[in-house]
Structures are given as structure tokens and as C-alpha cells.
Design a protein that fits this description.
Chain lengths: ~525, ~525
């Protein structure tokens, strides 16, 4: 019947059929995800991928092997509509105190880590692929493969970790996840621009490009965020309607991403910092209703976009055309998969453990021994970054297809490789994540001590943090108040962070909005 | 500089430039609209159209007369992405008590009215256009013109009327606006299917088609709404996350529209009734946070979509290509505009005054003399429906262009005619609306009496209505409680509505959610 519909309406409603089907599958996915929430093995991403696979198989049967996906993959769709809300929401919901407190560690993992991982994966595949009879990739392709498989997807681990139980770990995994996404996209674009024929001595150029992209994108995001905050404060929209406030926040966030893309900067970084600035200033200038609405609607849109992507990956895994195009034997294909997954494991281990040791030594010099990264934590950080997700897929499509279509067997093989790696890491590694973390971090035991230490780092701001829910805030504020008092009597930890807070209180908040810290009033 | 950008990025970022520009203009529009809110002449639509015109002129200058709009009009964009949220929000925010209490009157205006208005405009243009040297339109075109210019845009009037001061008037204008949109789209589609060569005796067929479309679309909307309510109630998502609840409501609403389009029903009617059902049942099954969020996010999306459309109309008015294509003298063009506006005025008067008289006589028979439609109200209802808006534009593009492009001079003329009529009615009639209503209905004077009468009609439900804001509900609930008590001692008004309420309490609410009326417990 669906087949008939497809034919009947193909000319008249060319978008109605796929959109209806996709939305229906999305709804199904939501319901199944909810029902399986208590399950100890699966998570959102796994559910979406599996539902996608099932929908793909049904579609294959109905269309008699013609097609397994409803929508053809459009990297534009991904980079223009799906990615911006996900990254903006990450910035908007990030616990800023934790994020900035561990800023150096996060940046180290997210930036230096990607460089290390990219070089290992690029070098490894350059060395191994020809041995597996997989030829035909250019130097640029190998560099792209390095960045494609260096972008992690930490959603799965974050669903298992608890922000209140292991704040240091959570903020590192979360922060690294976002910075890592941004870094790999920026690096991917830097590699694209590279003139590979004159590669010698140009590594410096890539680094320069990277630093320029990184700093100017961040600046643009900060500026847009501040502008939004200023407009909201100066005009105090809320007097008349919260609809305007919400619209303005949504539109400005999107505009920041688009402007960055227009100026050939990294939209991801821009929209991430725009999100942080908006939740730090702009969010305080709007009515209570707008605060609740924005917080939840950004989370909702991000959630839908993520589910959408994983559903798509599940469906695309069954795209028979691409499988047929590959000219390699199944033996060498298995070899390639194994090789890629091995490189991912090694590439990540190569920076997580050394950089953790470095971070620990830095921290012990700063006499904050309690917040060191234990070996168990290092393993979890390593594990959390093994999953590959939406960004990998999108970058692979950008590198190896033309508007989602490819006729070259080598390119088709790289697309299927990416999909297999994403499926394998998400399903197998994802499956093992919950049990692993439960084994490594038994609840309310040992890790609790860290909480006090971390939460006490910089008191005051937590009181001004966007509340997650009504009930939560009331209960936690009391305990936080106690912590901040004991902290204040103890060690006031004069760091960059402290001076920033002073500056923030004295100049930024009066201009751009947001409540004042209690501490600065003492 | 924009010109350079346009050329540089045309191949690489073909969507980035227009989207960025459009979003920036939208933001500007929001800020200007806010600043002018206190102004007694302008309203949202006028601001958006004027900003669109200005942006269009700047673009014309920058591109040296090549193009005045950023995006080419895509009727798909309008019918798939912009219209559904606007109509869903109308259903979701409608004051159900008022709407259903005046259901018959609203239906009379919205359905019979469109039929009368369509026949007058079709007949009139058929008779007058050839006399103005405007030839080349087919019978189907004339029928389409009738429906195109029968769809009203009441946004402008609703911004001036106050729901609490003139509830009867507000609910009729609001309800008619929605039903009218739906009716004209359904009628437009029915006319499209008509085999015009065998027109004789087929008027009955159009009516049959119309009734089928109307009833099955409504049924689909009701079913989707009930299904959503049932899923939300049975699974009680809120225990885990409000994100899933909000996602499900958004996706199901959209799905209802898409399903209707897929089954060749009227998506507008479906999504409207889906909105009503969702706010009546589903909305009560979600957490407090989801309620606030959904209420405001639907309003926001609808607001953005509306502004988007009016902005577009403003830009398109300066599309020089279409103007050049017209082969008529400016004299006959003015004649056509005048003729169309005259027909709109006459076509609307031809049903508002007779139907009002009929409604009054029906009401007096039901011994509810207080809620009759006074002559002043009739004039306001007549005036409120004179504006033409987004739906007219979209239908005109659907009838007279192929994907927004036309090369036929007659069709190009009809497009520019529609744009001129929309601009004229929105700007001139819209401009006069605020002063007219202030003159006809001086605040807090005379109309107040009606309020008590209406608000007392069916007490109880108001208490369960989605709250508009925290402060408001507390204050109004007390006065409403008083009203409902005096009402209960007075006349219990046994109507269909009363029996429906009993049925709702006994069977529907226990199954699909929503609080119980106090009255049924007495």
C-alpha cells in the first residue's frame, strides 16, 4: 500500500510521503526509547539506530529491494538544520562553572587530543589500507579519514554518568565531546583547503588556519551572544510578550551559526559559544516563562535532531546500492573495519592517558589534589570517546559523495566503512557502556567525596545557574549553600576564573544582564 | 559587499546566504515590531510587510535591479512548513468554551460565508475583467480567483480586540478566521479537481466533495489528538523527561497534517482539530514544565512563520520581473485592483449582515438575548475579514505559477494583482482597524455587560483552561468562581454543549486525560 502511495503521489507530493513516514518512525522511536529507558543495556542512540534498521528492512521489502531509506542523505540538511540546534543546546545547557573550571583540561583533550588521534588514524590507515588491497585514496582522503574518525559521540556515555555524582568526569566527558566535534570539523575544513601537492612544511599552515578559525569563530559567537543579551535587556521585551523574546533568542542563535558559515568560520564553535553566552547573560533578561520555555525547547529540538540522525544512520546501513558498488572481497572489508576500529582504540588511548597524567601533574602543582583524574576515570574518558556518530557520518558524506550520491567504488566503500564503524561502535561499545560504568563507579561510593570538592570549587554561581526543574533547585540549593560556606572559610582558590568572575560582576553583568554573585557583595 | 558574497558563495553555500539574510531581517522585524507596539496605527503584519519592502528595495539596489527577494517563493515551503504551525497554534490556543459555544455561528460565517463570497467574486470578476481588457483566464481560473480572495486574514483585527472585553465578538472573528482559511483551501482544492468542461449540474458534486473533505479531515485530526493524549497518559512520559513529551506533541501535530495531505484531505482542518484535542486532553497529561513550554513554543513558531510570510510578501511586491511581464496598461491594472477590492467589500457584506441577522433570530429563539450580534459588532466582523493575507498569496502562487515561476503574462498579472490586493488591504484597511475599533467600541463601556453574560455561559471549564501566565490565572480565577456560582443558581442553559460536557466528563476525560469539571461532581 505504501508502495502505491509512493507512486501515486510521487509527482504531486514529493516531500509529503517521506516526511510523513520519517515523522511516524520518529514518534515510534520516542515511544520505544521511553519504554526501554530502564533497560540496562540500550540507550537512545542504540534504539534509534535499531528502529532505523528495522524501518529500512521493511522499506526494502516493500519497495522490493529498491531503496532502504526515506530521505536521501543531504549534508546540507545536516549542517544547516540538524547540527546547529544540537551544538547550541550543548552550549546552552553546559554547567558553565564546571566547564570553565576544567577549561584547560577540556581544551587539551578536545584540541590536542584530536590532533594526536587524527595523525595516528591517518598514518595507520595510510600504512594499512594498501596492505588490505584497498587502493585509490588520495593523500587528502587519508587526512580526511583521520578527522572523520576522530570526532566522538559522547551522548551515550553522558546518559549513564551523573553530573552530581562525578562532576569532574562528567564535565570533562561533556566538554571534550563538544570541543572535539568542533575541532574535528574545523580540522576537516582546514585539511580541505590544504594544497596537498605542496605538503612539505605546510603542517604549520594547518595549525595557523586552525588557530585563526578557532579564535575568530569563538569571538563571533561571543559577540552574537552579547548582542542578544544587550537587545533583550535594553528593550525588555517581556513587558509585552514572551513570544518575541523566545523568537529572538532562537533566531539570533541560528543567525550566529549562519554568519559563521557565511564568513567561512566554524559554525559549530560559534553557536556553542553563543549558547554559553546566552545562558549566562541573555537568559537572565527574559521572563520566567521564557526561561522555562527556552531551556526545554532547545533541549527538545536537539533531542529530535539527534534521534533523526541516528534513525537515518540505521536506515542507510541497509542501502544495498552502496554495498554492491564495493569491489573488495568480504575478507578485506572485514580487515578494513577491524583496522579502523583498532586505530580508533589506539588513537584515543594515545592521548587520553598521557594527557591525563599531564593534567594531574598540573593540578597537583596547583595544590588541588582531590580533583585529579584517577585511573578509573581515565578508562571511562577513553571509553566515552570510542563511539562515532553523526558528525563522522556527515563529514564522510561531505568528503566521499556529491550531494549524498556516489558512483565511485572507492568512495562508496569509504561511506559503508564509516557507517559500519558508527554502527559497530555505537551498538557494541554503547551496549557495554552502562555495565562498564556501573562496574567502575559503583553508585554513592568513593566518588561522592569528589563531589563536595568539585562543587565547592567556585560557589555562588550555582545559585544563578538556570534551574533544571522546579523541585531539583530547591533541594540542591540548600546543600550548595552549605558547601559554599565551608569552601569560603577554607581555600578561596585564586585562579584566572576568580578574576574573570570579578570582571563579570563589575562590568559584564550590569551591561548584559544576569544576577550578581553574593560573594562579590561580601 | 553582499553582492560579492552572493557571487563567491553561490555554488558552495547556496542556502547559507539567503537564510542568513532572511533570519537577520526577521530579527530586525521583531525589534521594530516591538518598538512600534504602542503605536496606534501599525500592527505586526504591517511592520513585516514594510520591512520586507525596504529590504526588497535595498536588495534591488545592491543587485542592480536583478532581484528583490532572497528566497524564491515555494508553495511547498508554505504548505509544508509555515502553514501547519500557524493553524495548529490557532487550534491549540483557541478558547474552547467560547469556540464551541458559538460553534454554529462560527461555522455559518466560515463555511456558508466563503461559498457566498466565492460566488460573488467569481461572478463579478467573470463579468468585469473582460470589460477591462483583461482576457485569457479560464473558467477554472475564475473559480480559483473566487476562493483566493475569499480567504481572510484576521490577525490584524485580533491584535486590537480584547478577548475579555468582547468575548462573543472575539470568538466569532477568531473562529471565523480559522474556519474560513480551512474552507477556502478545501474549496480551492475541490475546484481544482472539478472537470470544468462538464460544469452543468456539478455544483452538487463540489458540495459533496467539500462535505467529505470537511468531515474526514476533522475526524483524522480528532483521532490523532486522542491518540496523542492516550499515549501520553498511558506511558506517563513525564516521570523521566519532559523533552520526550514535548517532542511527541510536536511530532504528532505535524504528523496529523502530513497524513491529511497524504490522504488528500485538508491538512489545515486536521491540524486545527488536532490542536483543539491536544489542548483539551493531551495537554493535561504532561508535566507543568511541558505545559508552559508547549504553550509558548507553539505560539513562538506560529509567530515566526507569520512574520516570515508577511516579510516575503513585502519583498515580492518589488519583483520587477513580474511587473514587466504584464501587458496591460496601468489604467486597466488600476481598474482590476479597484474591481477586486470592491468585490471583496461586497462579497463580505453580502453574507456578514444577512447571516448575523439569521444568527440573532436563532439566538433570540434560544432566549439568550444578551448574546446577540449588535450592528456595531456586525460592522467589525465585516471589517475584520477584509484583510487578505498569506493563504491568498499561497493559493495564487499555486494556481498561477509553476514552483513560483511563471512566464505567461496573464498569470503574472494575476500574481501581481494578488500581491497588490494583499498589500492594499493589509496596509490601508489594517491601518484603519485600530481607530475604527476604538471608535466603535470605547473601552470598558457597554461591552462590559456582555462579558459577564458570555463568561457565565459554561463555567468550570475556564478553571481547567491552559493558563496564559502565572499572575493572570490567580487573579481571574476568583472572579470566575464568583461568576460561575451566580450562573449556576440562575439558568443552567441546557444545550448540546451541556450534554457534550457530561459525556466528556463521564467517558472521555477518564480515558484521555484532563481534570474533571466541578459541576459534574455536584
Amino acid at each position: 500500500m505504501i508502495n502505491n502511495l509512493l507512486i501515486n503521489f510521487a509527482h504531486e507530493h514529493k516531500k509529503v510521503v517521506p516526511i510523513s513516514l520519517f515523522v511516524a518512525v520518529l514518534c515510534l522511536c520516542l515511544v520505544i526509547g521511553h519504554l526501554l529507558e530502564e533497560n540496562r543495556w540500550v540507550n537512545e542512540s542504540i534504539v534509534a539506530i535499531l528502529v532505523g534498521c528495522i524501518a529500512g528492512s521493511i522499506l526494502l521489502l516493500v519497495t522490493k529491494g529498491k531503496s532502504s531509506h526515506i530521505l536521501t542523505f543531504d549534508e546540507e540538511l545536516f549542517f544547516i538544520y540538524l547540527l546547529p540546534p544540537i551544538i547550541f543546546n550543548a552550549g546552552f545547557q553546559v554547567k558553565k562553572k564546571q566547564f570553565f573550571h576544567n577549561f584547560l583540561t577540556i581544551m587539551m583533550f578536545g584540541v590536542i587530543g584530536v590532533f594526536i588521534s587524527t595523525s595516528i588514524i591517518t598514518g595507520g590507515s595510510w600504512w594499512l589500507f594498501p596492505k588490505l588491497n584497498f587502493l585509490g585514496l588520495s593523500a587528502r582522503d587519508y587526512l580526511a579519514i583521520g578527522t572523520i574518525f576522530s570526532s566522538t559521540d559522547t551522548v551515550c556515555t553522558l546518559q549513564v554518568l551523573h553530573q552530581d555524582e562525578t562532576p569532574l568526569l562528567y564535565s570533562i566527558v561533556f566538554g571534550e565531546g563538544v570541543v572535539n566535534d568542533a575541532t574535528s570539523v574545523v580540522l576537516f575544513n582546514a585539511v580541505q583547503k590544504l594544497d596537498v601537492s605542496r605538503l612539505s612544511g605546510r603542517a604549520f599552515r594547518v595549525l595557523g588556519d586552525f588557530l585563526y578559525l578557532f579564535s575568530s569563530s569563538t569571538a563571533l559567537g561571543v559577540l552574537t551572544g552579547l548582542l542578544t543579551a544587550y537587545i533583550l535587556k535594553a528593550l525588555s521585551f517581556g513587558r509585552h510578550s514572551s513570544v518575541r523574546e523566545i523568537s529572538l533568542m532562537m533566531l539570533m542563535a541560528y543567525l550566529s551559526y549562519m554568519l559563521a558559515e557565511l564568513l567561512e568560520l566554524s559554525g559549530i564553535l560559534t553557536v556553542f559559544f553563543c549558547g554559553i553566552l546566552m545562558s549566562h547573560y541573555a537568559w537572565h533578561n527574559v521572563t520566567e516563562i521564557s526561561r522555562i520555555t527556552t531551556r526545554h525547547v532547545f533541549a527538545t529540538i536537539s533531542f529530535i535532531a539527534e534521534t533523526f540522525i541516528f534513525l537515518y544512520v540505521g536506515m542507510d546501513a541497509l542501502d544495498i546500492e552502496k554495498w554492491r558498488m564495493t569491489k573488495l572481497s568480504s575478507g578485506s572489508l572485514m580487515g578494513i573495519y577491524g583496522c579502523l576500529i583498532l586505530l580508533i582504540l589506539v588513537g584515543r588511548a594515545a592521548f587520553v592517558f598521557p594527557l591525563s597524567a599531564f593534567a594531574n601533574s598540573m593540578m597537583s602543582r596547583r595544590a588541588e589534589s582531590g580533583s585529579s583524574i584517577t585511573f578509573k576515570h581515565q578508562i571511562i574518558i577513553w571509553w566515552a570517546g570510542l563511539m562515532r556518530g553523526a558528525v563522522s557520518i556527515a563529514l564522510a558524506f561531505k568528503q566521499f559523495t556529491f550531494s549524498g550520491v556516489t558512483s565511485d567504488p572507492v568512495n562508496a566503500t569509504m561511506i559503508t566503512n564509516t557507517i559500519i564503524v558508527v554502527l559497530f561502535t555505537t551498538l557494541v561499545f554503547g551496549f557495554l557502556t552502562k555495565p562498564l560504568i556501573r562496574y567502575m563507579l559503583p553508585h554513592n561510593n568513593g566518588t561522592r567525596r569528589n563531589t563536595n570538592h568539585e562543587a565547592a570549587g567556585t560557589p555562588g554561581e550555582d545559585l544563578n545557574l538556570p534551574l533544571l526543574s522546579f523541585e531539583e533547585s530547591a533541594a540542591t540549593n540548600i546543600s550548595r549553600a552549605k558547601e559554599s560556606l565551608s569552601m569560603f572559610i577554607g581555600s578561596p582558590a585564586y585562579t584566572i576564573h576568580h578574576y574573570w568572575r570579578k570582571f563579570d560582576d563589575a562590568y559584564m553583568r550590569p551591561l548584559f544582564g544576569g544576577p550578581h554573585h553574593n560573594r562579590s557583595r561580601c
